Amino acid sequence: MDTSNGQCSCGEVHFEFTGAPINKAFCYCRSCQKLTNSDKWFGFWVPVDKFRFTKGTPETYSRLGDSGKMMHQKYCGKCSTTLAIEVEVAGFYSVAATAINGSNNDSPTMCIYASHAPKWAQFPNGVPKFDILPPEMSGDG
Ligand SMILES: [Zn+2]
Ligand SMILES: [Zn+2]
């Protein structure tokens, strides 16, 4: 099976995952805006059992998601790069696209929480846009 890997800016924390992500989403929620100081977070959704940290131990910041279940943000304690957000309600990690090696040519498959975006947000052309989530999904990230 294909293995992808990545790391934070300083290289203290490394991760890997196997298989193709189940989704590649731009999330425009308020938490993602604050996390990135931009309009969105680009996350590759990887089931928890396919993802692991291979070097270093990330710090964890846990917050309550819209779903009522916790979101666990995993970040490097040295350089503060957020590497992944564990979305408890849905059993996946939203892995930071920018931290994944070789992901520069990937594109998002959907935009979520678009109704929470700031006025200056940028939306890609031709990518489905949802006010919150597609009807069949729950949880954010
Ligand atoms: Zn680091
Ligand atoms: Zn978000």
Automatic annotation (TrEMBL):
Keywords: Lyase, Metal-binding, Zinc. Pfam families: GFA. Residues 4-121 form the CENP-V/GFA domain. Gene3D superfamilies: glutathione-dependent formaldehyde- activating enzyme (gfa). PANTHER family: CENP-V_GFA DOMAIN-CONTAINING PROTEIN-RELATED (PTHR33337:SF40), GFA DOMAIN-CONTAINING PROTEIN (PTHR33337). Belongs to the Gfa family. This is CENP-V/GFA domain-containing protein.
